[in-house]
Amino acid sequence: MEKIIVVGANHAGTASINTMLDNYKNIDVTVFDANSNISFLGCGMALWIGKQIAGPEGLFYSDKEQLEAKGAKVYMNTKIDHIDYENKIVHATTFDGKQMESSYDKLILATGSLPIAPKIPGADLQNVQFVKLYQNAQEVIDKLELHPDIQDIAVVGAGYIGVELAEAFQRNGRKVRLIDVASSSLSSYYDPEFTKLMDENLSEHGIELHYGECVQAIKGTDKVESIQTDKGEYKAQMVILAVGFKPNNLLGDNHLKLFKNGAFLVDKTQKTSDDSVYAIGDCATVYDNAIQDTNYIALATNAVRSGIVAAHNVCGTHLESLGVQGSNGIHIYGLSMVSTGLSLQKAKDYGFDALATDYEDLQKPAFVTEDNQPVNIRIVYDKETRRILGAQMASMYDISMGIHMFSLAIQEKLTIDQLKLLDLFFLPHFNQPYNYITMAALTAK
Ligand SMILES: Cc1cc2nc3c(=O)[nH]c(=O)nc-3n(C[C@H](O)[C@H](O)[C@H](O)COP(=O)(O)OP(=O)(O)OC[C@H]3O[C@@H](n4cnc5c(N)ncnc54)[C@H](O)[C@@H]3O)c2cc1C
Ligand SMILES: NC(=O)c1ccc[n+]([C@@H]2O[C@H](COP(=O)([O-])OP(=O)(O)OC[C@H]3O[C@@H](n4cnc5c(N)ncnc54)[C@H](O)[C@@H]3O)[C@@H](O)[C@H]2O)c1
Q1: pLDDT score, position 297
Q2: Cofactors per UniProt (predicted)?
C-alpha cells in the first residue's frame, strides 16, 4: 500500500487529500498541519471585520474530522521540522512537544506562503498585525471590540488584501490610511486607467490614500501610536501589514530546486526535482499561459487545482496542469474589477511588443434604464502574434463572469482577430448587440 504524506492541509493540501481519498483505494494518507484549523477562507476576513458577515462560522469548508472520515490520519498542531529526503522520512514535533517521525513513498508539500515582514523599526509593537490566518482575524476583531480607542488604522500595502481590508476597517467605522510604495493600488494586476477607478472609489468612501510613500518607522511605547513614511507621520493605533506573500520553502533543505523567488520548482504534474516529492499551492510555481513560462502566482484557485493535479499523479494517474493565467477579482463598495493574464504594463515589462484595445459602454442598450451601468474593458495582445495576453474589466455592474472567457482565450492562445467574430449572444436584458467585448476587438489596431 502506497504511503503518502501531505504536509499542510489548507486549500492546496485539502484539495489533494480529498481528491486522493475520493478516487483511490489502497492508499495510506497521513496529514500534518502546524495550525489548529484548516480551510480558512482568508477572503472572508474583510467581510467579517467590515461587518458584512456576522462571524467566521461559514469561512471553513473542511476540518480534521472530515478528512479522517475519508480515511486520512491527520495530525493537527504538528509541525514538520525536517525531511530526510534520502530515507524518505519526515520528522515532526507534535502539539505536546513530542518528537515523531513518519516514512513515505510519496510526499506532497502544501506548506503555502508566509507574509512578507518588511524590516521596519517598531514592527514588533502591539497592534501591528499580519493578516493571513483565522487567528489573525479573530485577534483583530477582538481588539476592535475591546478597544474603541483604536480609531486610526494604517494599512501598509494596497494590493488585494490591503484594499479589501481598507474597505473593511472603514465599514467598521474606523479612520483608514492606505499606504503603498507604488503609485496606485493594485498596480500588479491593473493598468493605471483601471487603478484610478479603484482609487477614486476608495477616496470617495473616506479612505486616505498615501501612495508613493515608503514606511520608515512604526512609533509608540508598547502600543502603536503613529506611523512614519518618507512623506509624513500619521496617527495610528493599529497597523496592518499586507505587503505580499513569499513561498514557504523552509522544508526544501537545499534539496529541492527553487524558482527565482524561492518557490519549489514543479513540472506540469506538480512534481519537484525529487521524483518522490510533489509541491502544490502557494509554496510552488505555476505554468503561466500568458508568458508561456514558469511563474509564481499565489491564489487559492491555483492552490486547489494544483492539489487536484498532484493527487492524481501521486496515485498513478498521469495528469498535467493546463497552466494558469492568474485570473482574479475584487469587489469594493460595489465596484467590481476583474483581470486575467498580463496588464499592458506587465506585458511590456516581460518584453512583449504589446498593444491594448480599450472600450467603454453601457452593459445594456440605453433604453434599458434599470441596473444598467458603464463597463470599462481593456484587452492586451501581442502586436506581432496577435495572441491575447490579458484582459481587465471594471464596472458597478457584475461583470465577473466575463473574465472567465478571457482566461480560456489566453489558455487556448486565441488572437484578438479571432475575438472580433466570436459568437456572443444578444438580449437587451443582458447586453448590447454590439457589446463591449466585440467592439474592443473590432477597434483593435
Ligand atoms: C486575507 C487573505 C485573503 C485572500 N483572498 C483570496 C481570494 O479572494 N481569492 C484567492 O484566490 N486567494 C486569496 N487569498 C490567497 C489564498 O488564501 C492563498 O493563495 C491560499 O491560502 C494558498 O493555499 P495553500 O494551501 O497553498 O497555502 P496556505 O493557505 O498558506 O496553507 C499552508 C498550510 O501549511 C501548513 N504548514 C506550513 N508549514 C508547515 C510545516 N512545516 N508543518 C506542518 N504544516 C505546515 C500551514 O499551517 C497551513 O495550514 C487570500 C489570502 C489572504 C491572506
Ligand atoms: N481577490 C483576490 O483574488 C485576492 C484577495 C486577497 C489576496 N489575494 C492574493 O493573496 C496574495 C497576497 O495578497 P497581498 O495583498 O498581501 O499581496 P499583493 O502582492 O497583492 O500586494 C502587496 C502590495 O504591497 C505593496 N508593498 C510591497 N512592499 C511594500 C512596502 N515596503 N511598503 C508599502 N507597500 C509595499 C506592493 O506595492 C503591493 O501593492 C496575493 O497573491 C494576492 O493575489 C487575492
Answers
A1: 97
A2: FAD
Tell me, using a 6 A CB cutoff, whether residue 162 lines ligand 1: no
11 is an active site residue: yes
Taking the centre of ligand 1 as the mean of its atom positions, its distance from the CA of residue 385, in whole angstroms, is: 37
Please determine whether the domains at 2-114+246-314 and 117-243 fall in the same fold group of CATH. yes
Average pLDDT (231-255) is 96
Fold for domain 335-442?
Enolase-like; domain 1 (3.30.390)
Domain ranges of the chain: 2-114+246-314, 117-243, 335-442
Give the confidence band of 228 by pLDDT, cuts at 50, 70, 90: very high
pLDDT-based confidence at residue 94 (cuts at 50, 70, 90): very high
**Among 53, 4, 21, 59, CA closest to 37:** 59
For residue 33, give the ligand 1 atom closest to its CA: 44
Q: Whose alpha carbon is nearest atom 40 of ligand 2?
A: 298
User: 117-243 has which fold?
Assistant: FAD/NAD(P)-binding domain (3.50.50)
Average pLDDT, integer, range 161-184:
98
pLDDT at 36 over 90: yes
Mean pLDDT computed over every residue of the chain: 97
167 pLDDT exceeds 90? yes
- 1 confidence band (pLDDT: 50, 70, 90): confident
Q: Is the pLDDT of residue 253 over 90?
A: no
> Cα(10) to centroid of ligand 1, in Å?
6
CATH topology of domain 2-114+246-314: FAD/NAD(P)-binding domain (3.50.50)
Q: So what's the ipTM on this one?
A: 0.96
